[in-house]
Amino acid sequence: MPDTPANSATSSRETAFDAVIVGAGFAGLYMLHRLRRLGLSSKVYEAGSSVGGTWYWNRYPGARCDVESLEYSYSFSDELEKEWQWTERYASQPEILRYLNHVADRLDLKRDIQFETRVTATVFDELAKRWIVQTDRGDRVAAQFCVMATGCLSIPKTPEYPGVDSFQGKTYYTARWPHERVDFSGERVGVVGTGSSGIQCIPHIARQARAPLCIPTNSQLQHTCSQSPALARGRRRLANSSPRVSSAGSHLAYQLPLRHEHPVSAGSVATGATA
Ligand SMILES: Cc1cc2nc3c(=O)[nH]c(=O)nc-3n(C[C@H](O)[C@H](O)[C@H](O)COP(=O)(O)OP(=O)(O)OC[C@H]3O[C@@H](n4cnc5c(N)ncnc54)[C@H](O)[C@@H]3O)c2cc1C
Fold first, then answer.
1. CA 246 to CA 226: how far, in whole Å?
2. Ligand 1 center to residue 99 CA distance, Å?
3. Whose C-alpha lies nearest to ligand 1, atom 26?
4. CA separation for the pair 133, 119 (Å, rounded)
5. CA of 125 relative to ligand 1 center, distance in Å
6. Which of 1, 33, 122, 243 is the most interior residue, by most CB within 10 Å?
7. If you measure from the C-alpha of residue 27 to the centroid of ligand 1, how many angstroms do you get, rounded to a whole number?
8. 185-215 pLDDT, tens per residue?
9. From the alpha carbon of 60, which atom of ligand 1 is closest?
10. pLDDT given for residue 153 in this prediction
11. Measuring from each residue's beta carbon to the nearest atom of ligand 1, which residues come in under 6 Å?
């Protein structure tokens, strides 16, 4: 397809593509591959500095998928399936990220992805019948199709508790975890949120931190823990380290005081995504 459509009202300063894809996670990568095979010129914009989406951002200790690795993989290519061997039944975040990089490299996808670029506006130009896509890097491109592969869990939920702004300690978000290792040794850490991310990171943080911590003991945690001796060890250690932590039933065993007058003093972790 021509880069600049005929009879278009698109400005000559704009670059034109058949499709713009926003996001380079599982969905965006596959979309780019499919559109290429259809012969469409495509451009991907990704806010992160590499591919991976969820698995690029969620680098917290203990992050792993909770469906079996084999099912959490692309199934469109026999070759890809044969050449990639998962090392664990439920793959960890680093392995899933390696897998997605492998797929992107293998299919030569990165050449059409512009990283560290956030799409800030998409406006449909009625006259040109094209989307006009703008980014925070000053790009302005036109495209017939605009695919939002932005994920359903890519925006972290910022806590809205009273006093959260004046918290003196460090705050980490599982969905925006630093690339470098975080050392919680000897710190008092509060983990806010006991969904999948919370129950995955708590045993790891508990290996280093001083109590108190939130610890849920539901079946999902048991299932995930069975993957890793480190997780199981961390959980046992936590259970032994604080008399206030018990592991009875399927309840949250210990609830942190979250009000401002009882802040945790050294560090806190907020888990979860979506605003
Ligand atoms: C911690 C965690 C664990 C999960 N585990 C599982 C699991 O075990 N099994 C399962 O099926 N699902 C799981 N999920 C759901 C997971 O999100 C999906 O499986 C899948 O990875 C989503 O892929 P995606 O490409 O749709 O979106 P994402 O992976 O979220 O990718 C979206 C990308 O779009 C980018 N983006 C967003 N807005 C913009 C913008 N304006 N401009 C530029 N780039 C933008 C983001 O930076 C992001 O990289 C999990 C999610 C999380 C958060």
1. 19
2. 15
3. 151
4. 7
5. 29
6. 33
7. 8
8. 888 888 888 888 988 998 898 888 876 566 4
9. 1
10. 85
11. 22-28, 45-48, 53-54, 56, 58, 63, 65-67, 72, 118-119, 149-151, 153-154, 196-197, 273
Q: How many Å apart are CA 198 and CA 56, to the nearest integer?
A: 18
Q: What is the pTM of this model?
A: 0.80
Q: Which residues lie closer than 8 Å to 233 by C-beta, 6 or more apart?
A: 203, 207
From the alpha carbon of 63, which atom of ligand 1 is closest? Answer: 1
Q: Which among 54, 117, 269 is the best mutation to test ligand 1's pocket, defined by most ligand atoms within 8 Å of the CB?
A: 54
Q: How far is the CA of 25 from the centre of ligand 1 (A)?
A: 6
Q: Which residue has the higher pLDDT, 162 or 66?
A: 66
- Tokens standing for residue 9: 């009202």
- Residue 131 is predicted with a pLDDT of 97
Distance 71 CA to ligand 1 centre (A): 16
